[in-house]
């Protein structure tokens, strides 16, 4: 399949769309703070972004190799980053199309409990990386967290799983099927040595916060045994 070169906007539906429909729902409130003494603050505006479900899972996939622990990352289409192109930004930046992250996905309606998080991790690992995980091999990686709690209700649950290394040394094609969406088209997978991947986050080469947090938590967990195989 040819590589994706750009994302073309066919129609801008913003003006004709309700804020409570679509994949993201914007709730627009006027609110005030109620204080313990019964008084209240002045009214102020609050905007909150919800998805149909409020939780997501991110999966750190890693392998033990002769050069140490390696982690699998995925570069996929990210329109919000891509559409920064031509906008006024604080610092000069590249034209984004693919953004490098760990495997991740949103829980579906009705998926609740840790078993659902494990199930979603299994599904996303297979869809996005072609990796089949066993439930027993998936471990929580610290507590869940918010990405932008001032505006978005989504909470991310981090897990990790050790797998066998596959693929090449440079970027290689992710499964073309994905979840069937054009958003999955043209994704690339890459293995990075764990601490080199963390340095790439610090240098701004990997710009995804859940990825950096997941890598750092994994490094902390594996610290006593993080040595290359002979």
At a glance:
The protein is α+β, with helices and mostly antiparallel strands and 230 residues long. The chain has a single domain, classed as Nucleoside Triphosphate Pyrophosphohydrolase (Alpha-Beta Complex).
Mean pLDDT: 93
Helix and strand pattern: EEEEHEEHEEEEEHH
Radius of gyration: 20 Å
Which fold name corresponds to the CATH topology?
Answer: Nucleoside Triphosphate Pyrophosphohydrolase
Share of helix among residues? 10-25%
Assign the CATH superfamily: Nucleoside Triphosphate Pyrophosphohydrolase
The CATH architecture assignment turns out to be Alpha-Beta Complex
The total count of strands amounts to 11
- Discrete helix count: 4
CATH hierarchy, class: Alpha Beta
What does it look like?
This protein is 19% helix and 27% strand. The protein has 230 residues and is α+β, with helices and mostly antiparallel strands. It has a single domain, classed as Nucleoside Triphosphate Pyrophosphohydrolase (Alpha-Beta Complex), CATH 3.90.79. A hairpin with a 2-residue loop joins strand 3 (55-65) and strand 4. Helix 3 (194-202) runs antiparallel to helix 4. It is globular, with a radius of gyration of 20 Å.
Attribute tags:
nine-stranded mixed β-sheet; 11 strands; disordered C terminus; two-stranded antiparallel ribbon; alpha+beta; 19% helix; globular; 4 helices; 230 residues; Nucleoside Triphosphate Pyrophosphohydrolase
């Amino acid at each position: 399949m040819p590589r994706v070169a750009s994302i073309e906007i066919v129609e801008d539906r913003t003006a004709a769309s309700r804020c409570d429909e679509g994949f993201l729902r914007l709730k627009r409130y006027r609110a005030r703070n109620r204080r313990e003494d019964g008084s209240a603050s002045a009214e102020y505006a609050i905007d909150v972004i919800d998805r149909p479900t409020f939780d997501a899972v991110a999966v750190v996939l890693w392998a033990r190799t002769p050069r140490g622990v390696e982690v699998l990352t995925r570069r996929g289409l990210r329109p919000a980053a891509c559409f920064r192109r031509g906008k006024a930004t604080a610092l000069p930046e590249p034209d984004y199309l693919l953004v490098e992250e760990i495997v991740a996905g949103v829980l579906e309606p009705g998926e609740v409990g840790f078993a659902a998080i494990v199930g979603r991790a299994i599904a996303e690992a297979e869809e996005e990386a072609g990796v089949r995980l066993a439930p027993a091999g998936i471990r929580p990686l610290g507590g869940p967290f918010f990405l932008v709690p001032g505006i978005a209700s989504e909470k991310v649950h981090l897990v990790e799983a050790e797998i066998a290394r596959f693929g090449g040394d440079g970027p290689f094609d992710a499964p073309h099927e994905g979840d069937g969406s054009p958003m999955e088209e043209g994704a690339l997978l890459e293995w990075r040595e764990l601490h080199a991947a963390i340095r790439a986050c610090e240098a701004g080469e990997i710009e995804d916060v859940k990825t950096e947090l997941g890598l750092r938590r994994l490094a902390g967990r594996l610290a006593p045994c993080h040595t290359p195989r002979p």
